[in-house]
């Protein structure tokens, strides 16, 4: 099977939502019965975003195979309900690393190594890798950045060459742009779009389809004008208005016939109408909740909600499943103190303590957890949130006042959270944590089992520290039990407090696996517990 390629570029401004447009188009093609995947090319020099501060780049998403990737891959999985992998995210850093390693090995002996052809060839190879798996009829490749950026040039050149090498009907270019609205004259302006299309053309790429972000409806006349000056077919100018939820975008693109126009260019059949019943039923539930709960998300990156993207989306999926609106309040952990915790958390029906690294804001997290434990407020701790729950319990229930994680206090006499044995000799920071999917055995008599309804599960990880099993008996004697364990390494993956209505901490990241069609069971159950608490 030869795969067909859809290349998505962006122009005029950044943050127009190429990832959502790509995911929405993929959803429609999948709903018509095509096998499709999405790939993101990121023009930065980091090998992956794993070493980036969330303030710089939002959440770092982790795939089944343990790749630390751009958060757009999370959207792809949430929309398509199929896993992505290392091959779905390529960065300039990774491309150069590979080419330079080859140069050192002597693979180019005698030759000057250059951006064209060596870097562009490596980009092309990475783009074609997904096609070579034979698993996909259609591959959507999203090129990060904005046309005109210096960093994006090798990518545009690479896809230009691919287009030249491929048959006309094997590839299509979609360009996402913005039509700014001038309120003084009450008009949408098309000139920036014309310029951006022209700039793309200077690199040898003619856009086939223009998706135009706009705050106001685009008239037929304006569409005609854009089509004429940008040299695309008249119906290939697509309007993308602002919507209340990203999950409406596939429906909007369906109305605009984006999928049909793409399939026409690719000479693929449009016979099968898209099957979107489950999707629309999710949307109906999401928009017509019967209940509402308020949940506090306690974290230190709350100024940038994108840092918790997958958690926010998981609440949307699980909320809809419960037909319950989740009013999520992002609460800065650095601002929580013993004095104000009551006032900050008393209106919450549930508390989630977020993942994170380093010691900023952790005492506030511990205070929030103490509040949830003592007041029977449903609690859900993820990764660092689970580790802090263990520390809180050690300090305030068992009585080890100095209990800590060796991440924050390497000298603590009670390192109830400690570095994993296989991490101790690691000096390189990039890509060396415990990453990706591992199996976990769930004990039958537990809240986790009630959620999963099975004993064997698999979840994704991203951490260096772990529950110190040396102290397990002390914890269990006092009422905090380990209810999920890795069968090979014996690492504790889930902890619970038996006497509490809902107190669950997980070492893994359930949020990465929540999708529209498969809301994560732990989020579903947590919301259920908060609904009960509210009653
Ligand atoms: N900092 C902790 C660790 O490395 C938790 C990581 C996380 O929350 N993802 O173990």
Which key phrases capture this entry?
535 residues; alpha/beta; nine-stranded mixed sheet; seven-stranded parallel sheet; 18 helices; binds glutamine
Entry summary:
It is built from 18 helices and 23 strands. By secondary structure, the chain is of the alpha/beta class.
Outline the structure in words.
The protein is an alpha/beta fold and 535 residues long. Helix 4 crosses helix 5 and helix 14 (362-374) packs across helix 15. The radius of gyration is 25 Å and the shape is globular.
Percent strand equals: 15-25%
The overall average pLDDT, rounded, is 96
**Rg (CA only):** 25 Å
Helical stretch tally: 18
Could you state the oligomeric state of the chains shown? single chain
Largest sheet strand order: 13-12-14-15-23-22-21-18-19
Briefly note the structural class of the backbone: alpha/beta
Q: Runs with pLDDT <50, length 5+?
A: none
List ligands, each type once.
glutamine
Mind describing the biggest β-sheet? Answer: 9 strands, mixed
Distance from N terminus to C terminus (CA atoms, Å) equals: 56 Å
Q: What's the total count of β strands? A: 23
Helix content: 25-40%
Ordered list of secondary-structure elements with their pairings:
Layout: E1 4-10, H1 18-31, E2 36-42, H2 54-57, E3 61-62, E4 68-69, H3 72-80, E5 89-91, H4 92-105, H5 115-132, E6 138-143, H6 153-165, E7 171-178, E8 181-182, E9 187-188, H7 191-202, E10 209-214, H8 220-230, E11 237-241, H9 249-255, H10 258-265, H11 277-287, E12 291-299, H12 309-321, E13 324-332, H13 341-345, E14 350-353, H14 362-374, E15 379-382, H15 384-398, E16 404-405, E17 415-419, E18 434-442, H16 447-452, E19 456-463, E20 465-467, H17 472-478, E21 480-485, E22 492-497, E23 503-506, H18 521-534
Parallel strand pairs: 1-6, 1-7, 2-5, 2-6, 7-10, 10-11, 12-13, 12-14, 14-15, 15-23, 16-17
Antiparallel strand pairs: 3-4, 8-9, 17-20, 18-19, 18-21, 21-22, 22-23
The structure holds glutamine.
